Amino acid sequence: MPIDPQALAIGELVGPGFDLTAIDLAQARTQIDEVSRAGPRPEVAAVEDRRIPGPAGDIPLRIYTPEAPGPRPGLVFFHGGGWVFCSIETHDVMCRNFANGVGCSVISVDYRLAPEHRHPAAAEDAYTATCWVAEHAAELGVDPARIGVGGDSAGGNLAAVVPLLARERGGPALKHQLLIYPITDYPTDTASYLENADAPLLSRALMQAFWDYYLPEVEARGAPTASPLRAESLAGLPAATVITAEYDPLRDEGDAYAGRLREAGVPVVHTRYEGMIHGFFAFDVLDGAKRAHDDVFRELRAKL
Fold this sequence. Notes:
By secondary structure, the protein is α/β, with parallel strands linked by helices. The protein is about 40% helix and about 20% strand. The chain is built from 10 helices and 8 strands. Helix 3 (about 90-105) crosses helix 10 and helix 4 packs across helix 6. The longest helix has 17 residues, at about 285-304. The chain is globular and about 45 Å long.
């Protein structure tokens, strides 16, 4: 089907991307955060900012607690932004929606960004934060047997990597992984990349630039901590919900990861949202996003 008219309108407003090398990263990050703070935010029972010890300094967290009584499920969430942009501020509304829609505590992680902190900094921060949540579950009102990880785009990449690290390092035990149009592999010559080279919000050129900032050594990009699709085995990983979008350069690698999980015996619910573009899940005004929210919230309520 053609691009959904609502998604197309947003895509035309935002554009296909930009030259990453031609902007001031610090200024752009600040502006993105300021815009994110300006909009309305759904109310949740409690929101707390905390800092926890990380591999190279403190990791900021934002903890969302819904009205639901504890012990609740917990979702450790990693924001998107190509490992270069975005923060707990840009994904604040999304995390509030998860807390209210699922009835779970959401712990949003402000991991280190590239190019100042290259791979595997983000992955190690994500894993460290997940371990902290498991260790402090009682304090957070979270059931340690019902902890999941989730994220969108680059955050979806981290949400796929953390279960691999948990399996390799002996924990923590995770109940679910939510992968929203995740980055799972580094080649940018798949059919979906070529078909959507100038797609709204995420172009092929911008994604190539993100990879160059996050992990410039191409020969190292096949590591499972960068490209989880290339992990030797996906057996024994937690059940997954995978979302992909028809008009997204990342579509094929997300579809492929869902397929590999299923082949490895991992329970998977995978939905490709036809007519949708990269980033659609964050735009609450889209009918397609509302459908995806309903689907994901229902799935997480059942699985967590």
